[in-house]
Every structure is written in structure tokens, then in C-alpha cells.
Amino acid sequence: MSTAIRRPHLVTTTVGLLVATVLSACGSGSAGSAPAATTAAAAPAASSPATSSPARISGNLTVLAAASLTETFRTLAAAFEAANPGVHVTFSFGASSTLAQQIVAKAPADVFAAASPATMKTVTDAGDAAGTSRVFVRNTLEIAVPPDNPGQVNGLADLAKSGLKLGVCALAVPCGAAAQKVFQAANITPNVASYEQDVKGVLTKVAAGELDAGLVYRTDVKSAGDKVKGIEFPEAAAAINDYPIVALTTAANPAAAAAWVEFVTGPQARQILQDAGFQLP
User: Among 261, 276, 260, 243, which residue's Cα sits nearest to residue 136?
Assistant: First the structure.
């Protein structure tokens, strides 16, 4: 009788010991697996690739650009060099048609910025463009006269007046081709006294009082300040020039060339160009 009483107690005790042993083992396993869990969590962080920084550019960068870009491109160069301390930008400004011929003749240059698609086509057709050119701004013509307006010019029709000394760009130059378009659109035969090789040549003679009027870009009038007076005319809408830019296949510094093109077509440069009077495409 007493033995029968002891056996259930013994079985209960044994089961209790077994449960305690199992629970102890489970608790020990959880504690032991904690470092493994920590290691697993740390592993992805250890194997994650490091964040790569933008490639640094350095060296000289030579840009051939339309004369009408002179002031704004110099402003852009200061910002570009500040952002890329190892780079120095050198410019050659002039008539887009002349610059295009220099590039085709393999003159050393990294980037070309033209004042018309036609002059850019000279470069792309020769296979000297590294990729597709991109239009980054537009420009329109405006009449520039000396501050006292001695020719009494008030609109495009006045440029046909007898005795008026008018200056325009040569026909091969984008500003000259644009002038020809507006004269044809308005059915006007201008009284041209001087054909200049680029728009700055026209502007300089007007500011010096050597010409009574000149057809230049609105951005040139703005950059001249009080040296000239600008006269807008509605016929200018017939000849708005697109300005394309491209890196060149012969670039000695292709990395900097690509960076300059990206910068010029980016938001900071676009705002500077727009403030200078250019239109955005």
C-alpha cells in the first residue's frame, strides 16, 4: 500500500525532472543562439558595398564657344572651377562657323558650344562629336543702337532708311543668317554698311558710335549695359537660334568635357543663362 503511494510520487518527480531538464536545455539553446543572431544581423552591414563618391576631375578643359556666350560662360566657368578645384577652363570665343571649321581641322578642344544647329552639323557630319549634341538655350535678335539713337531707329523697317549706318553679322555666321531670315520675313532690304565676323564685332562698333544700329542678340544688348540701347521687334520671332553643345572626340580631357556639358545643361547653369537673357528650350 505504501509502495503504491510512493510510485506515483516517484513518477511525478521523474517527469518533473525531465521537463525541467528540457526547459533548461531550451533556455540554454536560446541564450547560446543570441550571438549567432547578432552575427547574422551584422553580416549584411559588413558585406554592404561602400557608398561611392563621384569621380574627381582635374586638368585643363578647352571650350570653343559662340561669341554671344562670352559673359555667361565665364560666369559658369567660375562656378564650375569652384565645384571642381582641380580643373581650369580655357575658352576660345568666336563665330560658330569659324570655330566649327577649326574643330574639323583638328584644333585642340574638348567641347564645342554653337549658336546654331547648322554650325554644329559641320562638326557632327565630320564625326568630331562624342555623342549627340544637346540644345541648352535659345536666343533671339534685337536692334542695338547708341544710347542717343542718332539714326532714330524705332523698329526693323527703319533699318532700310537711306543714309543709316547698319551693322550685321556675315551671312555665314549664325547671327547673320538669323538677320537674313528676319529681313526676308519682313520683306525689307536693309541698308548694311558693315558685315562683321561675329556678333561682338557688331556690338563693339555700335557702342563706339561707328554704327547707327546693329542686329545682335538680346543677350548681347543686356551684357553691354548702358553702352547701347536695345530695341525689340516682333519680326525676331521668325529667327530664334537654338544653341547646341557637345563634347568632342578629340578631347584631351574627356572626363572634364563630359562634366562641363552636364553642368551647362543642369539647373544651376540654366538659371544663370536665363538671367542673362537666354531662353530655355
Answer: 243
The three-class DSSP label of residue 44 is helix
pLDDT tens profile 227-275:
999 999 999 999 999 999 999 999 999 999 999 999 999 999 999 999 9
How far is the C-alpha of 112 from the C-alpha of 122, rounded, in Å?
A: 11
- Residue 55 has what pLDDT? 67
Beta bridge partner(s), residue 176: none
Max Cα separation, the chain?
A: 145
CA distance 191 to 120: 30
Concatenated DSSP letters of 142-167: EEEE-TT-TT---SGGGGG-TT--EE
* pLDDT greater than 50 at residue 90: yes
Answer whether residue 105 shows pLDDT above 50: yes
Q: At what angle do helices 174-186 and 117-125 cross, to 10 degrees?
A: 130
* pLDDT tens-digit readout, 3-28: 343 333 333 333 333 223 323 333 33
DSSP code of 139?
A: E
Residues forming beta bridges with residue 169, ordered by sequence position: 196
pTM of structure? 0.79
Strand arrangement, sheet containing 192-196: 192-196, 166-169, 213-217, 141-145, 229-231
* Confidence grade of residue 168 (pLDDT, cut at 50, 70, 90): very high
Q: What domains are defined for the chain?
A: 59-138+242-275 (3.40.190.10), 141-238 (3.40.190.10)
The burial of 147, by beta-carbon neighbours within 10 Å (0-12 exposed, 13-18 middle, 19 or more buried), is given as: exposed
